[in-house]
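Continuing the series of single-chain predictions for the mutant panel. This is the parent chain; the variants come on the following pages.
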Amino acid sequence: MSTETSAAPPTARTLADALRGWDDDALAELLRMRPDVARPAPHDLGQLAARVAGRGSVAMAIDRLDSAHLAVVEALALLGDPVADTAVSRLVRMGPEMVDSVLRRLRSLALIWGDDTDLRLVRVARDVLGAEPAGLGPSLVTLLTAASPARVTDLAEDLGLTAAGDPLATAGRIADAFAKPGWLQARLDDAATAAGDDVHRLLARLASGPPSGRLGSVPAPTGVANATTALQHLLARGLLVAVDDQTVMLPREVGLHLRGGRTTATPIESMPATTVRPVDPTTVDRTGAGAAFEAVRRVELVLETWGARPPAVLRSGGVGVRDMRAAAAELDVTVDEAGFLLEVARAAGLVAAGDDAEVDEVWLPTDDFDTWREQPAELRWAWLAGAWLLTPRATVLVGARDDRDRPVNPLSPDLERGAAASVRRASLDVLASVQPGSTVGDPEQVVAAVAWRRPRKTLLRDALVRRSLLEAARLGVTARGALTTAGRALIAPGDDSQQPAELLAPLLPQPVDHVLLQGDLTAIAPGPLEPPVAHGLALLADVESRGGATVYRFSRESIRRALDAGWPTTQVHAFLADHSRTPVPQPLTYLVDDAARRHGRLRVGSAAVYVRADDHAELDRLLADTGLAGLGLRRLAPTVAVTESPADVVLARLRQSQHAPLLEGADGRGVHVAQDSRRASSARARRTPPTARAGLDDDQINTVLAAIRAGERASAARPNGTQPRGHISVVDELRSAVDHRATVWLAYLDETGTVSERLVEPLWIDGGRLIAQDHRSSSRRAFALHRISRVAVAG
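Parent structure:
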């Protein structure tokens, strides 16, 4: 499919008109590069134009531009509309061929439109770029317009110019003088002669951006003759302008001059060159598979533990330091890595805050966790890795201080950063830019490359890149500094979410359905266990060690755990016999029978709550246990005691004190209640979709295109004069007004149902609103598009 954008018709008045001149290949490329405008499918090109020119979409597109494309957009913002490509070439420090290539891509992104002599930047882009595009300040006229008339007059006289009666006209004369060849440089030379190198140092600091400098206090205006410091000399000559009592600004004309008349001081080349080193693809894939398997295993382990013993949610959100240390110790990793794994689990929707009877909220596995852990390991990994790739959460901030000077903890709401996913993806794209069997020679080269690819993502960007590389290795997306085969598939275009899992599957250890029971009350799992076997063994035994093989140990407490969960003795014996490749050792059989014999000798039921023993000696020992004093047990009969404590609390406390109670029903029979791990509702999870595919595949693009073309045909088929002046035609009119800076009359239906006419200057369209300067109130206002019934250009 061609990526060339059809030229906009020479007569195109609006962006919508320009898009109507594009062929299907060009529109498809637009949808591929800006998929946010395709959901839901626009019903014609007018609506597509409104979306691609919306503030949110334009901001997203600009944030994804590399340094070369951003420099051209900033130049267009500085030059104003319309502008010729030759003017752009004169302003940016890159060759004409590169400028042409950049302009073609900006057209294909619909950030600019028009032919080479009539280029127009979408209006809202200037607002997205802010008041200082390319790090250059406002123009001299803009700065002087805000100054006092007396200051403007004094400056003109200091510069040897004749002041006009109007301060604005005087400011224009000063700006015209600055534009004369050699005039500005002469003023700079005068200041340097008078104040020395301090002038150069001060200007160099502001010329590189930002163009404003904050001081303790700005000195009072003085004439050139009375200036003594570098700052005073610069202010007296208009080379700096005071904008308030503490801030000075470098005018745009001066900043451009100091940069050699270009928006950048140095040439803008292609992405910084990176060195490449060879790696063994087989070693990379096997190492990555090992990391992937461990990440999946550890996520499952920590969430199973939290299902049984959930940690409290801090009042500020997140997990406390003590709970994180416990999780790290259980997983045998650092606290930092444990926090990362929990963040991935949260992104995947596997953990969320849930209610607890004793505290307000706790962290619990979600219902989706049970679905996830029943899947094969490769699909579990793909679920986690896809969520990690798209999550906006930045774990690099863990340990930093929030605005209240409190440390930021894992799972805290303070970890969200809009740039996180974009920088993470850009980091992996740099690794993907080299062929399999090689990788970028130095991680710092990746940092430099991402800085060129995402120049607007300055805050935390470099730290996010380094963190992304570390996390990718922990998750098995990379190994030995290179993308694994599954990792490349994870970030590849398209919507085949199964491919990364399929590529990883052959490299993972195959699950087994058996263990080797030993005579010392241990069991050896020779590999990862199939989920049903793993869950059953987790009830019956405790993990003693992990490594090439996992060792489980049986104890009276672990067997009792299975009995508490409702397993009858026969089921325990059958499970051990069915899943052991060795005969069940006699000591283990005795242990099971002994635990079963002791189990249920105490019964708990509701009276409020009673505790019944088989003999009075058993109850004597229970009442003598000082650790149970808080239950408030009192004897009613030789073998019966009662308490006001809830039955579940009594059961839990008795088990903690090494007793073996059994819950009893109203008929006196034992009631086996499965002690399943607790769950939070999946609806409470803030989940990143379990796929890394944020774009559109070819089929989706073709479907959207078909809908747009059908909408265009329907509009064209309407008889002349019958087309309603509905939402889309209104948007087209407003878009034209924005592009041409026209003042228009709006017929606007207000909240009371009254239609009024408003004289406004449209500034931009953002989603379903028009932002405009309202002439009636002399203020900026937002107008709902669906309430605008008519638009007419003011005559």
